[in-house]
Amino acid sequence: MEYFLSLFKFLSYILLKEFFDFTNYYFPFPMSIFSCFWRNLRSEREEEMAARSITYITGSQLLSLKRRPNIAIVDVRDDERSYDGHIAGSLHFASDTFRDKIPSLIQAANGKDTLVFHCALSQVRGPKCARRLAEYLAESKDDVGIRNIMVLERGFNGWEASGRPVCRCTEVFCKGHTEQPQQ
Ligand SMILES: [Zn+2]
Fold first, then answer.
1. Cα distance between the two ends of the chain
2. What stretches pass through the bilayer (predicted)?
C-alpha cells in the first residue's frame, strides 16, 4: 500500500511538473502561432489581391480598346525601344529603373484607369513591373484611380509579328501621331 501511495505521489508530481513546465514553456507559443498564421494569411491575401488585379490581354483585344481614353500602354523594355519601334501612344518606363519611377508613371497615367504593360515578349519584365505597380498601389493609401493592371500577351514582338501598327518616333512619351501599319 505504501508503495502504491508513493508511486501515485510520484506520478502526480511528474504530471503536475510536466503541466507547469508545459504552460510556462509554451505560454507564448500559441500567440506566436497565431501571429505567424495571421501574417501569412495577410501577405497571402495581399499577394492574391496583387495577382488578382493583373490580367492578360491579347494584341487584338488591345487594338480594339486602344483608342479609348482610359487606357495607357506602358512599355517596360530597356534599350530595345529606341531601335525596335513601339506601340503608338505608349509610355516608356524601362524595367531596370521601373521601381523608382512608379510615382512618375502614376503621374503620366493620370486619368487612366487601365494600364497595359508589355516588354519584348511579356514573359519576365512586363509581368514583373505590373506586379510591382500592383504592390505599390496595394501599399499606398492614395487612390490614384488605376483599376485594371494588364499585361499584353506575347509583348511587343508578338504585336509586331502579327502585323499590328508600330510607331518609330523618338519621343519618350509617344503621342501616337506617326502610327503606321507595319510593312
Ligand atoms: Zn511613337
1. 105
2. none
